[in-house]
C-alpha cells in the first residue's frame, strides 16, 4: 500500500509540473471528468468559424458594452460597441486588451475609430495567421503577407487537426501557453519584444464553450480536406516574408475545377432558394446586396495589396474590378466558401450564415463554374 501511495504522489507531482510548464493559469481537465460527449456534441461549428475569423464580435457570442454595462461598471465608460471583457475566460482582462480595430454600430452601419482603436485584431484572432482554407502558406496563404509588420502566416496545416483527438485539440488551444495579453502589443508579428509569432494566451481570452466551438469547426467545418472541392495552384514562388512581385505577373493563387464532381443543376436550385433574393438571379446583386467585389490587383495579383496596388486584369489592358458572386467564387474560392459558412457579419447589409453541407457546397461551386449563368460583371449596379 505504501508503494502505491508513493507512486501516486510521484505521478501527481509530475502532472503538476507538466501543467505548470504549459500554462500557470490552466488546470488541465482530467480524463475522468472529461465530458467530451456533451461538450463536443453541444458545440457549434459555425460559431467556431466565426470565432476563427473574429472572436471579438457579437455575432460570435461576445457581447458588446451597453449603456447598462457602463452603469454597472464605470470603467467601461466610452466603450459602447467594444467587446465586453466580462465575457472573457479571465474577467480581469480590460477592453483595450480584447477590442477590435474599430467600433461597429449596428443601428447606423458605421465603423468609427473613436475611442482610438488598437490594431490588434489580426494579432489575436486565428485568421490573422491561419488562412481559412486550412493550408497555411501552401495555398491562399501565399498571398496574405502584405506588410513587413504583419504577423507571418503559419507553416502548419490546420487541415491536419481533423485527425486529432478532440481532447488533444481542445488542450492545444486552451493550454497553448502563449504570450500574455498586453495592451501594448501591436500587429507586428516580426518584433520578438512584442511576442513575435507566439499565440496569445487563449486560456485567458476564450471560455471553454468557445474553445469547443473552435474544435468542432477545425474537425468538421473546413470542407476541402481531400482537394475535392476545388484545385488550387500557387504562383510566383514560395511564400515571402515581404511580397514584392512585379506588376503584370500571374496571380498568386488560381482556382480550377471548383465544385469537383458536384451537381451544377442542384447548385443552381440551392442558389435560387438561398441566395438569389439578395444577390440576384445572375449573382450581380440587387438593392439588397451590391457585393461582393474583386478589387483591382486581386485578379492579376501583384503583392496581395488589392486596390492599393493597381494591376491589369487577366486578358485585358485596363485596370478593372469585377463584381458579382460568379467572379468572386472563381477567383477567391476559399474565402467565398468560408463566407457562405459564416455569413458576412459586421456588415450592412448583414448576411446570415447559410446552413450547408459539403455536398451542397460542391454543387454550389459547380454552378459558379458557368460563366454564362454567373458572369464576370465589370460594373456595379446603381446604388439603391
What is this entry, summarized?
Helices cover 32% and strands 5% of the residues. It is mainly α.
What do these coordinates show?
There is one protein chain. With 384 residues, the chain is mainly alpha-helical. Helix content is 32%, strand content 5%. The chain is built from 14 helices and six strands. The chain has helices at 2-22, 36-42, 45-54, 67-72, 95-98, 121-124, 166-174, 202-205, 208-221, 264-274, 276-279, 325-331, 333-342, 358-368; strands at residues 103-105, 110-112, 231-234, 253-256, 293-294, 322-323. The strands form three sheets. A two-stranded antiparallel sheet has the order 1-2. It has a two-stranded antiparallel ribbon with strand order 3-4. Helix 7 packs across helix 9 and helix 12 (325-331) packs across helix 13 (333-342). The longest helix is centred in the first third of the chain and has 21 residues, at 2-22. The chain is globular, with a radius of gyration of 23 Å. The termini are far apart.
